[in-house]
Design goal:
The structure holds two protein chains of two kinds.
Chain A: E1 2-13, E2 16-27, E3 31-35, H1 42-49, E4 57-62, E5 65-66, H2 74-78, E6 81-84, H3 95-105, H4 110-123, H5 139-151, E7 157-161, H6 169-184, E8 189-194, H7 197-203, E9 206-211, E10 214-215, E11 223-230, E12 236-241, E13 244-248, E14 255-261, E15 267-270, E16 280-291, E17 294-300, E18 304-310, H8 311-316, E19 324-328, E20 334-336
Parallel strand pairs in A: 3-8, 3-9, 6-7, 7-8
Antiparallel strand pairs in A: 1-2, 1-4, 4-5, 9-10, 11-12, 11-14, 12-13, 14-20, 15-19, 16-17, 16-19, 17-18
Chain B: H1 2-16, H2 20-53, H3 59-69, H4 74-85, H5 100-124, H6 128-136, H7 141-151, H8 153-168, H9 172-178, H10 188-198, H11 202-230
Helix pairs in contact in B: 1-11, 2-5, 2-8, 3-5, 4-5, 4-9, 5-8, 5-9, 6-7, 8-11, 10-11
The chains are: A alpha+beta, B mainly alpha.
Amino acid sequence: MTLFEARELTKVYQGRTVLSLKELLLEEEKIYALQGPNGSGKTTLLEILGLLIRPTAGKLSYQGKWIDFTDTALTALRREIVLVHQNPILFTTTVKKNVEFGLNVRGISGEERKKIVIEALDLVGMRNFLRARAHKLSGGETQRVAIARALACYPKVMLFDEPTSSVDVENRMIIERIIRNINAEKKISVVFTSHDLTQASRLSHDIIPLFEGRRVASLHENIFSATASLNEKGKTTYLIREGLSLIGEETETAGEVKISIDPLKLSVDRIGNYKPDRNRLRGKLFQLTDEQSLVRAVVDVGILINVLLPKKTVKQHSLTIGDELALVVPKNAITVF
Amino acid sequence: MEFLLDSILSALVLLWSFDPDLYFVIYVSLKVSFFSTLLSSLLGVPIGFIVAFNEFRGKRAVITILNSLLALPTVVVGLVVYAFISRRGILGILDLLYTQTAMVIGQVILILPLVAALTIAAVGSIDEKYRKTAMTLGATTLETARVIFREARFAIVAAVIAAFGRVIAEVGVSMMLGGNAKGFTRTMTTAMALEYDKGEFVLGVALGIVLLAISFSINVLFNVAQGRTRS
């Protein structure tokens, strides 16, 4: 069943369009990742889905009903959708009272409330902190209590804004496990934002790539600033840094631009086959991670470039971290913004 | 120097002797300041909170006006209220001039903008995330306002304390609207002004010591409240 449907959704802040979505369809009981660089409109979209801000234009439906953002009944809808902010705040009181907050406003009383609070804190492994002062917790603990506080409300949808951006590795793993569990066991639909594509792929059923407020067809990765200039053959050269330039397809763009290099269109070759060429970059394999049916390779060519390779290619070249290799960048892998 | 030390010594003796006239002056000061602070807080805190919490057309103008009123001279307040409550004024029939009520009215007008402006600053300094967090957890607008008020409570207390500090030390309103009548409207500051005029310093210095002690206590309270806000 459709959870959210958005049409022509726009948000303008002080004359600047920060979100412009033609269409968006999210289904129930799934995990979605809103992925994109800073300023791509992820948080704005999340806050609109959380019914915390009104879109400037466009329509949004929740479970098949179009939402009237001027409606006073919005509070009732909000009680089904809880957003956990990036670097969440806890109210200046105890952990218990923080987790109780949503239950108090829902009029849940006494024993029932106590039971839910303990259950929610148990889920995030923070039961021992029940009586602790909230402002004395570490960043990771704060994040976990904020998740418990949201879970205590028994939401149908949980929205997370960069849930692991300010926590250590241990807490990141715990939070990712919590997100997976609440979706698998409690059937809570999850939408989270992340600029970490690896995390987005690891956690979500579907990734929604955003760039400059728009939904884009493919993942814009490997975004770099470059100076574009036309060469004598009518092709465009993109100078990323001194000694590192790429040739793209014919375009009239010149001057300072932003380019993205599609990781799916890149390939690697053994260094033995390396021939000096503008679009064949010599580099070192920096990182290899499994990503669903593909393998993500990070290649250091002076800058780090992400490449998505079929598993058979990795096997065929017996790629291991530290290998020297040639990174092949076809002209059509470069997109200019 | 010797003269000042003698005055301080005599003042301490006077305080130690529990002179009823002296303590009545202190009592009037504290009573008038307490009620003017109470009334201005009952009005100013909600005004400040409503202005800070809500978005409306002309909000900036309201804040600018309140901030400008912070510099309101006490004598101007005294004059305006006098014009209303003197026998020829439109409220003359109430016979309020030279009463403690008149002093309270004047002082409320004096510190109301201060309480409101400091409340706006206190509420405005609360991170927007508190409002959004309360809302996303299902709070109504009223419950969200309670959360914000709770988070700003120490800063609001600091605003009230600052207002009390302003009125306990003011002299213009008390003199013009109270009339400095002994046993009725004489406050510490008006008494000090009178003693100065008379060239009698002992009572003035004694009251000065009390006033400083009160100011010191207020500042300690203010710092405690601010410290709680920061933590």
